[in-house]
Design brief:
Blueprint (H helix, E strand, L loop, with lengths): L5 H8 L1 H7 L3 E2 L10 E2 L1 H20 L3 E2 L5 E3 H7 L1 H5 L7 E3 L2 E5 L4 H9 L10 E10 L15 E11 L4 H19 L5 E6 L10 H14 L5 E5 L8 E7 L5 E10 L1 H5 L4 E2 L5 E2 L2 E6 L4 H12 L12 E5 L5 H13 L4 E3 L7 H7 L5 E5 L1 H6 L1 E6 L6 E4 H14 L9
Parallel strand pairs: 3-7, 9-10, 16-17, 16-18
Antiparallel strand pairs: 1-2, 4-6, 5-6, 7-8, 8-15, 9-11, 11-12, 12-15, 13-14, 18-19, 19-20
Helix pairs in contact: 2-10, 7-8
């Protein structure tokens, strides 16, 4: 049999096809284009990824907030979004004599949260994070699967700090991104320093651009990167972490930005050691960017065979016959009690061979036959094709739990 061509492999790994085949997500014309919904297994992946990000941020000294998805038009006029970004925003809605819009970004809301309280230099850096919804008025022709959507769940954070702290904070953000990529089993294709281009879509403040760019160049010392004009945010330059899909298409997943513009527009300040007011620097950073785009890339990168800690189902328990149903159910209950995502697929779901094939994407399969049921054992099959053989159920669950907790790539390390 001839091996599949690159085009065939790309089609087979397309996240839109896999997402539907694996019951991860789907769309409905009555919901609208660019507005996918998540099925239970897809929701597990998304929830697990979001909790991972929150845990990583908490460990990195971030505090989480919630902010509304609507804002007055005036808010985005102050931030500069209305002048420089309105083509990508949904039209305003009249509400009680005011105009409100679905937010295209979280940063103006976080600036207001910072401004709502007075701050001392002793509190800085203040790291504020949120997994929040935002909305982009994308044209129908560019929408596709999870990569280009109109309702986005963004992993966003803003660090309010002194000028002297900005470079270290941005470097630490890049470190968080690298660590997350290692845990997720994905690779950065390249790092890009995104600079302004021609036209009036960018804030007209040469000094702002010069200062922010110089700081980001310090952040990137020792990192191979490419400077590209025309890819900056309207308010400042940014570091983009680029990824490529199986078709070779490049996109931005994670970003780090240094912003002098919005602290000035919102008149943000902190009280310094001298008792005077000082302007903070605002560092924007996103570890995985859009949750939708991150999941799309993970689906394609792993072909639906997610790392064990991220897999919708981590362990499938297969009794050979009905005589082993009771023992298999006990194994299932023990696994669930340990917090593992486990399922039981009994004989009513088909032959043993058919059930093993159906569980091919699960990292672990535990087969319970007569010998295993009598000895509290499980015949283990790994997703990579290895068969460690019959092991005590307690050992199996301990090993699986250790891999999941440690987010390890090796499914069955040597004892």
């Amino acid at each position: 049999m001839a091996s599949p061509s690159h085009r065939e492999e790309t089609a087979m790994s397309d996240h839109r096809r896999l997402g539907r085949e694996l019951d991860l997500f789907d769309t409905d014309p009555l919901m609208g284009a660019g507005l996918p919904y998540w099925l239970p297994d897809g929701a597990v992946v998304r929830h697990t990824l979001e909790e991972y990000v929150r845990e990583a941020e908490r460990a990195g000294g971030y505090r989480h907030v919630y902010s509304p998805v609507l804002g007055k038009r005036e808010l985005y006029e102050i931030s500069g979004h209305w002048d420089h970004y309105s083509e990508d925003m949904f039209p305003p809605m009249d509400l009680g004599g005011e105009q409100v819009v679905l937010r295209p970004s979280l940063c103006p809301h976080h600036a207001l949260i910072y401004r709502s309280r007075s701050h001392s230099y002793r509190e800085l850096p203040l790291r504020m994070a949120e997994l929040g919804a935002m909305y982009r008025s994308e044209l129908s022709g560019v929408l596709g699967g999870l990569t280009r959507v109109r309702a986005i769940q963004l992993n966003d954070a803003h660090i309010f700090c002194t000028l002297e702290q900005a470079v270290d904070e941005a470097r630490a953000a890049l470190g968080l991104i690298r660590h997350a990529y290692a845990d997720l089993g994905i690779r950065a294709a390249r790092y890009r320093l995104s600079l302004p281009g021609e036209g009036n879509k960018y804030v007209a403040d040469p000094d702002l651009w010069k200062r922010a760019t110089a700081l980001l160049e310090q952040v990137l010392e020792g990192v191979e990167y490419e400077a590209v004009e025309g890819e900056a945010a309207f308010y400042g330059p940014k570091i983009d972490v680029q990824i490529t899909d199986r078709a070779g298409r490049e996109s931005t997943l994670s970003t780090v930005q240094i912003d002098f513009h919005q602290p000035e527009r919102f008149d943000l300040h902190y009280i310094g050691a001298d008792g005077a007011k000082h302007r903070p620097v605002m560092v924007h950073r996103s570890i995985i960017g859009s949750v939708e785009r991150a999941v799309a890339h993970l689906i394609e990168e792993h072909g639906g065979a997610f790392p064990a800690w991220l897999a919708p189902v981590q362990l499938v328990v297969l009794p050979v016959s009905q005589e082993q149903d009771e023992q298999a159910d006990q194994v299932l209950r023990r696994a669930l009690g340990l917090g593992l995502r486990a399922e039981l697929a009994g004989p009513e779901h088909g032959t043993l061979g058919a059930r093993i094939r159906a569980a091919r994407l699960a990292p672990y399969v535990a087969v319970i036959g007569a010998r295993e049921a009598d000895g509290d054992l499980a015949a283990v099959r790994l997703r990579d094709g290895r068969r460690p053989g019959a092991v005590p159920v307690e050992e199996l669950l301990r090993r699986v739990g250790a891999v999941v907790e440690g987010r390890g790539a090796e499914l069955w390390a040597a004892a």
